[in-house]
Amino acid sequence: MSTVAQSLRLAAQPRGWSFALWAVLLALPYALPSHALLISEITIIALFAMSLDLILGYTGIVSLGHAAFFGMGAYCAALFAKHIHPDPLLGLAAATGMTMLLGAVCSLGVLRGSDLTRLMVTLGVALILQELANKLDWLTGGADGLQGVVMGPVLGHFEFDLYGQTAAWYALGITLLVFVLLHRLVHSPFGFSLQAIRDNRLRAQAIGIAVNARLVAIYTLAAALAGMAGGLQAQTTGFASLDVFGFDRSADVLLMLVIGGTGWLWGGLIGAVVFKTLHSVISAWTPQYWTFWLGLFLVLLMMVGRERLIRPWTWGRRS
Predict the structure, then answer these.
(1) Which of 15, 62, 259, 311 is most buried, judging by how many CB atoms fall within 10 Å of its CB?
(2) DSSP H or E stretch at residue 266
(3) Angle 67-83/88-106 helices, nearest 10 degrees?
């Protein structure tokens, strides 16, 4: 086996602490049943953050409209459950497939222009979809949202309960599966070629990497995963509204990656946990000024350093 192949194989092996953390996460709905709904919400936005990290952290594509795919997935899953079939896994597959198609179309917009052009294109797509969802009120419910979404049991046996434990384990299970697959992806030759494109697109093209094909592929995959997160949100809450397309949702997920770190799969998970915990705690303490304290935390994070505050146990390592 060549040295390069050995290096790739070693890099793809998960760390021991990764298994321990996932075991803790999977046990949380049982250990903290009263917070199962919050656990489900954090898990879903962590999956959303991981999808954005694929294009931002690993490929260097900046987006301000990633919520377009999240919202598309949410409405697709809700409409599928309401009008076609209530099975959660079938609905999630349909939502993921539809957003994958949308991502493939939108990926053509990231192949040309500067970062500013990409920002405007991605933001414009989210605004267009939000307005369409508002105008097509006969289908989407308009400003009132799509209500009356009733989900069937997961795998035909596990009913969604009022306390949210089934929803939490459902979201955690899907997110764990995606995490494992993405871990293999980002440590594969394809994943390292994405990082080469991020660092220097012209040099990557000069050494024979099919830059455009890889950009289309990773953007489509990121869109599909964002749609999966949106589908999970609609399924676990039984509701889809216009705010799933909102700019603040795209901005929040960017903040999560700022907190947890980009180009690191655990960054989305840690950023989601920290962001939602701060949001819940600070808004309960001072609802009017919670954004001020969150901003202060971000300033301190940048001044002190993320590794010292967020992940001291992984200094210099990636997963």
Answers:
(1) 259
(2) helix 265-285
(3) 140
